Amino acid sequence: MKYVETTARPGQAASGIPDVDVTLHVNGDVCRLRIDSRVTLLDALRDHLGLTGAKKGCDQGACGACTILVEGKRIVACLALAAQYEGQEITTIEGLSDNDEPHPMQAAFARHDAFQCGYCTPGQIMSAVSLMAEGRARSDEDVCEFMSGNICRCGAYPNIRAAIREVASEGNDASL
Question: Minimal CA–CA distance to 68: which of 51, 86, 50?
Fold first, then answer.
C-alpha cells in the first residue's frame, strides 16, 4: 500500500468554496487530497490522482464511461462527490488486474475484440465485473438489461456479451 498526497487544484481559481481534506482508498492505495468540496469522484481520480482509465463521456451519468467500483458495487463517478467516498474502497480499471495479470474479464474482452474505439471499454469492463459479482449474467437478456447503463457508440455489444458469457461459463471468479 502506498500513500499519495496532493494539494494541487488543477484549473481552479479561488472560488470562496471551502476546501476539504479527503482520504480515498483507491486500488489499494491511501490517497490524501485537499480539494474543493464540489469535486466529483471522477475528477478527483483523473485530475488529482492521474488515473485516467475512467472516461468523462456525457458528464451526466447516462453513458457509463466513468463506471468504477465502490465497495465492489458499480457507480458512475461523474455523479458522485469525492468527499462522499472518504474511507471507502474504490477500484478503477487501473486496479483491476492482479500482479500485472489481466482480470479474467479484461482478458475475455481482448479475446472477443469487445471494443472498437476503446473509449467505453473501461466502464464496460467495470460494469461487467460487477454484473458477475451480482450474479446477473444468467442470459443474454439479463446481460443486456444490466449493462444498459453503458453505451458503446461503435456497437460492439455482441462482442461484449460474448466476453461476459465466456467468463460466466468458465465459472471464473470475475469479481474482485
Answer: 51
Burial class (CB in 10 A: 0-12, 13-18, 19+), 12: middle
β-bridge partners, 69: 74, 91
Domain of 113 in residue numbering reads as: 104-170
Nearest-angstrom CA–CA distance, 39 and 47: 10
Does any domain span residue 7?
yes
Query: How many domains does the chain divide into?
Result: 2
pLDDT at 18: 82
For residues 75 and 109, state if they share a domain.
no
Nearest to 91 by CA among 134, 65, 54: 54
Give the H or E element holding residue 42: helix 41-43
Q: Please, what are the averages of pLDDT over each run of 10 residues along the chain (176 residues)?
A: 57 68 97 96 98 96 97 97 97 92 96 92 96 90 93 93 93 60
Quick one: 125 and 155 in the same domain? yes
